[in-house]
Every structure is written in C-alpha cells, then in structure tokens.
Design goal:
The chain is an alpha+beta fold. Helices cover about 30% and strands about 35% of the residues. Strands 1, 2, 3, 4, 5, 6, 7, 8, 9 and 10 form a ten-stranded antiparallel beta sheet that branches. The longest helix is centred in the N-terminal third of the chain and has 18 residues. The chain is globular. About 25% of the residues are buried.
Length: about 150
C-alpha cells in the first residue's frame, strides 16, 4: 500500500515537472497557460494596486481614473492624470510593452502624480501576464507583481 502511495506521488510530481522546469514554481505562481487573446484584449481593466518600486504594492488612490486596454498590438489608457499609449507584443503568457507615450499634465494632487509615476514605471517592467476570472496581473521577468487590475 505504501508503495502505491509513493508511486502515485512520483507520478504526480513528474507530471508537474513536465509542465514546468521546477514543479514548485507552478504552485507558487500559477500562470494560466490557456490565456486567450480575447481575455487580455478588448477589455477595460481598472487598477487595484501598483508596485511602488520599493518592494511593496500600493492600492490605487483613484481606481476609476487609472485604466488600461489592450487592442490589436496597441495598449492605451489613463495613467491617473494623463492618457498614455504604447505598442505591445505577446507570445503565450509573455508580454512586452514598448516605448510609452504620455502627455505631461500636472495632477491636482501630488499623491496622484506619484501614483501615475509608479504605474508608468511598473508598465515598463512588465514581461508576462496572468489572467484569472475578472482579474489581470502584470508581472516582471522574475514573476513579481507589477500591476494588479480588475474588470
């Protein structure tokens, strides 16, 4: 009986290893490998939290004002005070956002300007994404969360 349990565990771990080089990473950071273009594209995403560049996520000061939308190789939205746009490329769950373009209007509140700067800086570091029901996570090349968004 112990032999069958042990053998079952080995088969399970082997199947995980076939999906990922390190089976434990798959449990820590489950990337939805069945992402469809429709799930990422043509959806208005709203900010939940932004990586502040100092090892923490900060909640959005104004979740309705920061938006992002991916459409046919172009990404655009509102960074809080200013509209932005860029091109992007996607391959599976890999995502690269090109050179960002944005207007330079000042925000009425300095905290919103700071949030906008965090957001734009985080977007430049995005290298992969993860989609879950009603949620989009933009991650850097190490799998660290840069921007957390919802529908």
């Amino acid at each position: 009986m112990k032999y069958f349990i042990f053998a079952g565990l080995l088969v399970f771990l082997a199947s995980c290893a076939a999906e990922s080089q390190n089976p434990f990473i798959a449990f820590q950071n489950p990337i939805n490998r069945a992402n469809s273009t429709g799930a990422l594209e043509n959806t208005d995403w709203r900010i939940i939290a932004i990586n502040n560049g100092h090892g923490g996520m900060v909640p959005s000061e104004s979740p309705r004002s920061i938006t992002i939308r991916f459409d046919n190789g172009n990404v655009h939205g509102n960074a809080g005070c200013n509209p932005f746009s860029a091109t992007y490329t996607r391959n599976g769950n890999q995502l690269h956002i090109g050179q960002l373009r944005s207007t330079q209007r000042a925000c009425a509140e300095s905290s919103l300007m700071e949030q906008e700067a965090y957001f734009l800086q985080a977007l430049m570091q995005v290298r992969q994404y993860q989609i879950m029901p009603n949620q989009l996570k933009l991650l850097d090349d190490k799998g660290l969360l840069m921007v957390d968004l919802s529908k």
